[in-house]
Amino acid sequence: MFTVFRTAAAAALVVSTPAFAQSDSLGLSWIEAGLTATDGKAAGHLSGDWRIGTAQGIQLDLGLADQAGGAVGTIDGHLYLAPQGDRKYGFFLSFSDIDGRDATIFHGGIEGMYALSEKTVIEGRAGIGYASRGFDFISAEARLIYAPTDRIAVSLGVGLADFQEAAFNATSYRADLGLHYAPEGSPFELSAAVIQDGLWGNDDAPADTRVQLGLTWRLGDTGGTQRPVADRAFRASQPMDGLIRRGLF
User: Which site in 111, 114, 183, 184 is 20 to 30 Å from 102, CA atoms measured?
Assistant: First the structure.
């Protein structure tokens, strides 16, 4: 898995070198790279967006996260329609693998993003998944982003994943509140978020609260926290993150 991940990352960087597509043409639209640090654990991602039609696009993501049970590598794909400038929606498919042991996760479903106004964007996702050792689950996520200026934004996200197995019965939940700052004229964005997650049900676990710091670099988009939906990346799929962090998977 991790040889494939490194090869895919190198290929993505090579493909990203041509000129970016203009608003009325096909090809690479933008690329994004990000790093986060949470409780001494680092994670990174590389994303790219390609226009494949007048209203169609593909977003591809590569992710690598340091976890107590081993590094988690993820490949995500998003196939979407963008019929108008204020919305895009489609399907996603995700594959994750934990280094050093037989632990894989498949997750897929539908997702969408819609701009309520120049300052407010909402995003939602629902899906089903399967992980090794017989973990079946359903999941749902929602996010609200409010940017009072083109430099500052506040985000609020919630997510649920329900596991109903004979050996494990619980609902994983997560909520995060973030602050984002994009310096004027810079391709970088700084972020800080407070995250809380836990498990409800027969196999419950107490809530855990932590702080996450992040740095994101973008190339090819319009920049700023009020950038249009077309220049916003769909978030990566992480329905089992709470279980992995607690050593339950």
Answer: 111
Report how far residue 165's alpha carbon sits from residue 30's, in angstroms, rounded to the nearest whole number: 41
User: CB neighbours of 15 closer than 8 A, spacing ≥ 6?
Assistant: 28, 48
Q: Specify burial of residue 200 (Cβ count, 10 A radius: 0-12, 13-18, 19+).
A: middle
CA-wise closest residue to 99 among 151, 64, 146: 64
Which among 135, 161, 144 is positioned nearest to 238, based on CA atoms?
161
Structure tokens at 177: 């509140």
Instruction: Express each pLDDT in 157-193 by its tens digit.
Output: 999 999 988 788 999 999 999 999 999 889 999 999 9
pLDDT, the chain, mean:
89
What's the rounded Cα separation, in Å, for the pair 128 and 94?
11
Q: Which CATH architecture has domain 2-245?
A: Beta Barrel (2.40)
The structure's pTM equals 0.87
Beta-carbon contacts of 11 under 8 Å, excluding residues fewer than 6 positions away, are none
CA 17/CA 233 separation, integer angstroms? 19
